[in-house]
Amino acid sequence: RGKDDKYKVWMPKLRVAKEYKDKRKSIDDVERNIFKFKKSSEEKSKKMDKEEKFFRETFMYHKEIRVLATATAARSVRSQRHADLPLTAGERLDVIDAVQGHAVICRNAQGRYGYVLVEHLNFR
């Protein structure tokens, strides 16, 4: 044995399954898709669709849903009725439609819709 072999540490070779090697090569060969959605976003979109369907049935809203303005909640308010949207202070809301009286239809970040009194909102 030479000097170099004397101090050389023997390391076992890690064996990789052939299937894994092939899979790894195919992943490297294919371009990565930037616009690929994650499972969580798919689940989120399904939930948003469900909320929108519930909103259309409850409020009998047949127009196109367009955001007229964005507002922030001035204070936290619990919902009194099923159609009201509960608010937390500082929450951002999308104003969908202005109805008669002092209420507007809003959508929160979770996709829930409901009536909110104008006096509880700050528009900027």
The N- to C-terminal Cα distance equals: 81 Å
What fraction of the residues are assigned to beta strands by DSSP?
15-25%
| Mean of residue pLDDT values | 78
- Tell me about the largest β-sheet: 5 strands, antiparallel
CATH topology (fold) name of the domain at 64-123:
SH3 type barrels
Query: What global shape is seen?
Result: elongated
Low-confidence stretches: none
In the CATH hierarchy, the architecture of the domain at 64-123 is Roll
Q: Residue share in helices?
A: 25-40%
State Rg. 28 Å
Reading side by side through the largest sheet, how are the strands ordered? 4-3-2-1-5
Briefly note the structural class of the backbone: alpha+beta
The helix-strand sequence is HHHEEEEE
CATH superfamily grouping of the domain at 64-123 = SH3 Domains
CATH top-level class of the domain at 64-123: Mainly Beta
Domain Helically-extended SH3: 55-121
Protein name: FYB2 protein
Keywords: Phosphoprotein
GO cellular component, one term: plasma membrane
